[in-house]
Design goal:
This is PDZ domain-containing protein. It holds the Pfam family PDZ. InterPro entries: PDZ (IPR001478), PDZ_sf (IPR036034). It comes from Fasciola hepatica (Liver fluke). By secondary structure, the protein is an alpha+beta fold. It has one domain: Roll (Pdz3 Domain). The chain is 16% helix and 35% strand. Strands 3-2-7-9-8 form a five-stranded mixed β-sheet, with no helix packed on it. A four-stranded antiparallel β-sheet has the order 1-6-4-5. β4 and β5 form a beta hairpin. The protein is globular.
Length: 125
């Protein structure tokens, strides 16, 4: 069983400083990049981390828009977001290559969507 840990991120200047992909086939939400000087990096979030939950809410089966809403809600209520994450290596049953359905950059509480060349939603917030 994978070890999970909590990462508490307090945005700086409205920015969390990380992006994630959601793979609906594998039912995972994975951190794809972390801004080296950003709030997420300072909190210990790393590319490859699998986000299991936000606060007490599991991400299993949620859409990108629902994940964004959870982050927005946590930020407006608490001024921070609490992620339960596990490392990619801890989920050895998953293949190394992930075909992403959606990529989202976490920057502020206002969503921005643009088309992605692989017919994916690419969002920033």
């Amino acid at each position: 069983m994978a070890n999970h840990r909590l990462v508490v991120i307090k945005p700086r200047n409205g920015l969390y400083g990380f992006t994630f992909d959601q793979d609906t086939a594998l039912r995972i939400t994975q951190v794809t990049s972390v801004l080296p000087s950003g709030a997420a990096a300072q909190a210990g979030l790393e590319p490859g981390h699998i986000i299991q939950s936000i606060g007490d809410t599991s991400l299993d089966g949620l859409t990108v828009h629902q994940v964004q809403s959870l982050i927005d809600d946590a930020t407006s209520r608490l001024g921070e977001v609490v992620l339960q994450v596990s490392s990619r290596e801890e989920l050895s049953c998953l293949p190394r290559a992930v075909t992403s359905d959606t990529t989202t950059a976490v920057e502020d509480s206002q969503p921005y969507f643009d088309s992605h060349p692989r017919s994916s939603d690419h969002g920033k917030f």
